[in-house]
Design goal:
It is a single chain. This protein is of the alpha/beta class. The protein has two domains: 196 residues, 2-enoyl-CoA Hydratase, Chain A, domain 1; 48 residues, Lyase 2-enoyl-coa Hydratase, Chain  A, domain 2 (Orthogonal Bundle). It is 49% helix and 15% strand. It contains eleven helices and ten strands. Helix 1 runs parallel beside helix 3 and helix 9 runs antiparallel to helix 10. The longest helix has 20 residues. The radius of gyration is 19 Å and the shape is globular. Bound molecules: coenzyme A.
Length: 259
Amino acid sequence: MAEFKVEQRGEGIQLWTIDGETRRNAISRAMLNELEALVTRVSSGRDVRVVVITGAGDKAFCAGADLKERATMSEAEVRAFLDQLRRTFRAIERSDCVFIAAINGAAFGGGTELALSCDLRVAAPVAELGLTEVRIGIIPGGGGTQRLSRLIGPGRAKDLILTGRRLNAAEAFTFGVVNRLAPEGRLVETALALAEAIRENAPVAVSTAKHAIDEGLSLDLDEALALELRHYEKVLATEDRLEGLRAFAEKRPPRFRGR
Ligand code: COA
């Protein structure tokens, strides 16, 4: 059975819906296999520029690891699962596609980690986020300790991770965990509008800017500025840069071709 519903939503934009409402869209091995395959597929092509990931139903975006399946797994199997989870989340970050999490309900543990590995997060009013792992005797294993502290700083990350508490959508916005709050009933529409605002920009410029930001985070400022310059070289060589200048001069919208 397919674990995701994949829909084309306009040119260059896909909507992936985790289709496991009865288990609150938890990350099972089957779901993870399919997520990894989907990420690999869109990242190796040029057709899809932005992916919006959401969850089926209105209860959960993703309730984290599938705890029923986890209870049946050996330590070695848990390690293998974590390896694949970390590899998949990293592939999302390394992809030239932009990923947006549209958080439609609860996102706990691995659900919040999935959202954190996306480039941007949009939340419905009913969304709840939390790295709740310490409450069940583990720590975040899908990059949560590292990505949350890079996103909102170590102090606020510790506040959330050591208490394991759940944030509602408004708190998550205030903490800087989510980028945008969607009006009630308009989550997917809001996320797709954000996707469209990104998609209409020059493809090489968008993916290069994404990588420049991500790769610079662990560098000191001088190294990071040198990195930005190296990335700038990539856009300097594109036809789209010249098209951008022509369109400006001719007072018309640019027609980017992704090269
Ligand atoms: N793994 C596997 N199954 C899960 C699950 C998970 N992480 N989270 C929920 N489910 C299952 C429940 O066991 C239940 O199954 P059942 O109908 O066979 O009993 C079903 O999904 C519905 O769960 P329920 O708790 O009744 O739904 P809810 O809408 O009231 O609450 C959540 C949804 C997500 C808030 C709640 O299920 C929850 O807190 N889940 C655990 C989250 C968690 O701790 N994740 C791991 C963090 S490390």
